[in-house]
Amino acid sequence: NAALETLRTARKMGAIHPNLDYVYAAAHEQMALWAVTPEARDGHLATAREQFSAAISQHGRSYAEPLQHGVTSWSAGVRLGIVLLQEDQPDRAMRCFQAALERSPDPIDAVLGIAETLLDIGQPAETLHVLEPYLSRETADGWLLAADAAQRLGDVGLFNEYIQQACELASTRLRSLHRLPRLDGLLVKPKAS
Predict the structure, then answer these.
(1) How far is CA 72 from CA 18, 44, 75, 136, 150, in A?
(2) Dihedral through CA 51, CA 85, CA 100, CA 108, nearest 10?
(3) How many Cα atoms are found within 13 Å in the side-chain-facing hemisphere of 82?
(4) pLDDT tens digits, residue range 145-182?
(5) C-alpha–C-alpha distance, residues 145 and 162, integer Å
(6) Residue of 71, 92, 68 whose CA lies nearest to 82
(7) For labeling, which of 26, 63, 74, 143 is most exposed (least CB within 10 Å)?
(8) pLDDT digit string, tens, across residues 110-151
(9) How far apart are CA 63 and CA 31, in angstroms?
(10) Please, what is the Cα angle at 174 between 169 and 176, to 5 degrees?
(11) Of 115, 83, 121, 86, which Cα lies nearest the Cα of 98?
(12) Rounded to two decimals, what is the model's pTM?
């Protein structure tokens, strides 16, 4: 809360910069994860959406202070897409991830977003197709999304393989905490041998 208060004070003093929009949005995105009530969660997500959008809207402008890498393009686009997924807006999220994919120097987060969107709109086979080239990367997220897709397709063997990889990497290699409930949900489902 102290960091948010500092950002609010900077805004009141007239500080306008995409770095501030991005940090403010990221703080609210994280606060949404830990919100106690649905109303608080929705409020934090709405603020995050607005502030990531504000950062993106400043793409191409010049500032005296340096910009964080990707703050007005791919990085903010990925984060905005993740927020939109949590707000159940998969079409808008997909557009954000696809735009980020075109601009990003490393496509992994955009690809994970695309795969997650495909999974959430009921296309688990396409999810696996998108993820396949990235499963060798040391991230829990790809394995987690692949496990969910395999489970939805009824492939118990792949599910068990993928969920094991996801669990081994989750404590140190999870790229986005919003995926933890998905992991928890998969772990409570019975696994056949």
Answers:
(1) 7, 20, 7, 29, 35
(2) 120
(3) 25
(4) 999 999 999 999 999 999 999 999 999 999 999 999 99
(5) 9
(6) 92
(7) 63
(8) 999 999 999 999 999 999 999 999 998 789 999 999 999 999
(9) 29
(10) 165
(11) 115
(12) 0.89
State whether the Cα torsion 42-44-47-52 is positive or negative.
Answer: negative
Tokens 């997500």 sit on residue: 45
Q: Tell me which H or E stretch contains 4.
A: helix 2-12
Residue 10: Cβ within 10 Å count: 15
Sign of CA pseudo-dihedral 126, 49, 143, 100: positive
- Residue 13: the pLDDT is 73
Residue 41 structure tokens: 């969660």
CA distance readout (Å), 29 to 34, 45, 183: 9, 6, 19
Helix residue ranges, H only, 17-136: 18-33, 38-57, 74-86, 90-103, 108-120, 124-131
Amino acid at residue number 33 = L
Amino acid identity, residue 131? L
Q: How far apart are CA 79 and CA 52, in angstroms?
A: 7
| DSSP structural state of residue 66 | P
Tokens matching residue 171: 């404590």
What backbone torsions phi and psi does residue 72 show, to the nearest 5 degrees?
Answer: -110, 10
Which amino acid makes up residue 25?
Answer: A
